[in-house]
Write a structure and sequence with these properties.
This protein is an alpha+beta fold and about 300 residues long. It has 3 domains: about 45 residues; about 50 residues, no CATH class; about 130 residues, Prolyl oligopeptidase, N-terminal domain (Methylamine Dehydrogenase, Chain H). The chain has 3 helices and 16 strands. The strands form 4 sheets. A 7-stranded antiparallel beta sheet has the order 8-9-10-11-12-13-14, with no helix packed on it. Strands 3, 4, 5, 6 and 7 form a 5-stranded antiparallel beta sheet that branches. A two-stranded antiparallel ribbon has the order 1-2. The longest helix is centred in the first third of the chain and has 28 residues. The N and C termini lie far apart (about 75 Å). The N terminus is likely disordered.
């Protein structure tokens, strides 16, 4: 056992390190006490009765997402979270973010695919939020000309949160039906683009969710999966993704180009369970629409 006392330098160094650690601990403790004053949530006296049993639900008021009280509570929670992240996780979080940006800052190319007379591909440059779809003319051998931008989701919103949510080309590749979701929502709207001219057609179909887009042969129209518009969104100023009720009544619809979405035809809706989801694909010979139904995320189809 070493019984030799430390020399003055060692003792001084030990004291200095200990003092620094203590000061850092005190600082972090004070900061933590300040940051961890979590905003309180009011407890109400609300109750519900189910089959003769009274169930307390003191936070039912938080389900009123548009009320002033709920909005104020959410704002306070956001401030608290931001303060915690900045106080407790910096500078480590900043270094981690910088490293992630460094390793992800490169151009990402997809494999090209051919439809009709065109080749298509995706390219996401550097740290751009969304990948851009390009088209290129096909000739007998190889490609001709420079790739042209066909669809750039980065131009659809200022914050870059509008994203592609499913695409489908007509049989000859002259038309593109594509879904656009906003701010990470599962809801998306279907738009149609003329591939040759690059211009969008006036057709727009809303309230699509949990399903793809399927053109019919001849490109006169397409099939898609959708829900009825949620009742809680009927109020002015409400946007998709803020609803609180469970979406039911998933169905396969058909949209004919050049018509209003309100005129779309119902193709299929399960008569057995309103919570079942339905999707469709076209057979390889473009003669048969194949419909698949499933129970939410259950991996068993019917």
């Amino acid at each position: 056992m070493n019984t030799t006392p430390p020399n003055k330098c060692e003792a001084g160094g030990t004291a200095l390190v200990g003092g620094l650690l203590l000061a850092r601990s005190i600082h972090n403790s004070r900061a933590r006490k300040k940051v961890l004053q979590i905003p309180s949530a009011r407890r109400s006296d609300h109750t519900d009765e189910y089959f003769g049993h009274v169930v307390r639900d003191p936070y039912r008021w938080l389900e009123q997402e548009d009320s002033k009280e709920t909005k104020a509570w959410v704002e306070e929670q956001t401030k608290h979270t931001d303060a915690y992240l900045q106080t407790e996780l910096e500078p480590g979080r900043g270094k981690f973010l910088a490293r992630l940006e460094e390793v992800f800052n490169y151009d990402k190319h997809s494999s090209p695919w051919r439809v009709g007379e065109y080749w298509f591909s995706y390219l996401q440059k550097g740290l751009s939020p969304q990948a851009v779809m390009y088209k290129q003319v096909r000739i007998v051998v190889g490609l001709d000309g420079t790739p042209e931008v066909l669809l750039d989701p980065n131009t659809l919103s200022k914050d870059g949160t509008s994203a592609l949510s499913g695409v489908d080309f007509s049989k000859d590749g002259d038309k593109l039906a594509y879904g656009i979701s906003k701010k990470g929502s599962d809801w998306f709207s279907i738009h149609v683009k003329d591939v040759v001219t690059g211009k969008d057609l006036p057709d727009v179909v809303d309230w699509c969710k949990f399903g793809g887009i399927t053109w019919e042969e001849g490109a006169r129209g397409f099939f898609y999966s959708a829900f009825p518009r949620p009742k809680s969104l009927e109020a002015a100023g409400k946007s998709a993704g803020t609803e609180v009720e469970v979406a039911t009544g998933h169905r396969i619809m058909y949209h004919k180009l050049g018509t209003k979405s309100s005129e779309d035809q119902l193709v299929y809706q399960s008569p057995l369970d309103e919570k079942w989801l339905a999707s469709s694909i076209m057979s390889d010979d473009w003669k048969t629409l194949i419909i698949s139904i499933g129970d939410s995320c259950d991996p068993v189809n019917r």
